Amino acid sequence: MSDKIHKCLIIGSGPAGYTAAIYAARAGMDPVLFTGEEPGGQLMITTDVENYPGYPQGVNGPKMMDDFRDQAERFDTKIHYEKIVKVDFTGPVHKVWTESGDEHHAHTIIISTGASAKWLGLESEKRLNNKGVSACAVCDGFFFKGQKVAVVGGGDTAAEEATYLAKLCPEVHLLVRRDEMRASKIMQERVMNTPNITVHWHTETVEILGDEEVTGVRVINNQTKEEKEIEINGFFVAIGHKPNTDIFNNWLDMDEAGYLIVKPGTTKTKIDGVFASGDAQDKVYRQAVTAAGTGCMAALDAERYLINQGIQ
User: Fold this and answer.
1) Residues 7-27: pLDDT tens digits?
2) What are the φ and ψ backbone dihedral angles of 234, each rounded to 5 degrees?
3) Over the chain, what is the mean pLDDT?
4) Is 191 left (phi over 0), alpha (psi -120 to 50) or beta?
5) 297, 278 contact by CB (below 8 A)
6) 139 carries an active-site annotation
7) In the predicted model, is pLDDT for residue 230 greater than 60?
8) Is 8 part of the annotated catalytic residue set?
């Protein structure tokens, strides 16, 4: 255990964590950042990012995260390639433990642990990830403009992704496992009123087809057991995300899905000195640019907290 009490300790990397580190470091807060088991987060499995300002030609996801990390290190952020596995938020000084057992203390904690997309678990899905398989239509839909695509899921996310893609693609196939959607009534109406969306009820994915890129999908009707192939170029998995917030159970308020709850308009959690940023607290937008924005907010909130506490 280190005797030093850090002014600012950041749990998680990605756009939120690295942006928080940049702001905290420039404010003289000497931040330490623990990357977690996936340094850079979801963007490390993203190839082309074309919707982040400042990259007019687009950028490779891992390269973008390298740039964020390098900028954070330029201002002397101390980066530890470790995962935080336990926290203790009692008392004014917060405690965290790494997977190797090291204990660290901090006046402020910024959480930026992100969320992970849920996948179907198919071998072909993993093999063709970023080769036509995606978990974000807003991120990747543009690459399939004018092509046929499929979306799997029955909730609001799937409905939103299908209607978004319908503006870009001539054919959108929505694969729904049950005989009804879980999406809100208004989202279901939008799907049903969009002529180029075809809903396939009682439908489950057997295999995504293609060698180097997606060429189709084989599905099965779970009632009739009839299989068929649908010709597509893009396959979007929209069955939800799981926020990486398990270690904060019993410490912080969460919604039913596990997203951290913050005070409106801030990144403040119910614990003084603990702030949440990025996809760990955002189930609506889930974009790199919004995650970076909340990382900035968290660092500013933490800085003001330290000032109010008289901590230099």
Assistant:
1) 999 999 999 999 999 999 999
2) -135, 140
3) 94
4) alpha
5) no
6) yes
7) yes
8) no
Catalytic member of 3, 8, 30, 139: 139
Q: Which CATH superfamily is domain 5-116+241-308 in?
A: FAD/NAD(P)-binding domain (3.50.50.60)
Provide the whole-model pTM. 0.82
| Domain ranges across the chain | 5-116+241-308, 119-237
Tokens of 275: 């702030």
pLDDT value at position 240? 86
Q: Which of 8, 136, 169, 296 is catalytic?
A: 136
Q: Are 49 and 134 in contact (CB under 8 A)?
A: no
Q: What is the dihedral of CA 122, 123, 127, 129, to 10 degrees?
A: 10
Tell me the CATH class for 119-237: alpha beta
Q: What pLDDT, on a 0 to 100 scale, did the predictor assign at position 41?
A: 76
* pLDDT range class, residue 49, cuts 50, 70, 90: confident
Three-state DSSP state, 148: strand
Are residues 183 and 191 in contact, defined by beta-carbon separation less than 8 angstroms? yes
Q: Could you tell me the CA-to-CA distances from 12 to 106, 240, 254, 268 in Å, in that order?
A: 15, 21, 18, 17
Residues near 265 by beta carbon (within 8 Å), at least 6 away in sequence: none
Q: Is 136 a catalytic residue?
A: yes
**Residue 236 CB neighbour total at 10 angstroms:** 28
Dist CA 144 CA 125 (whole Å): 17
Residue of 48, 66, 102, 140 with catalytic role: 140
Distance CA 280, CA 15 (A): 12
What does the pLDDT read at residue 122? Answer: 96
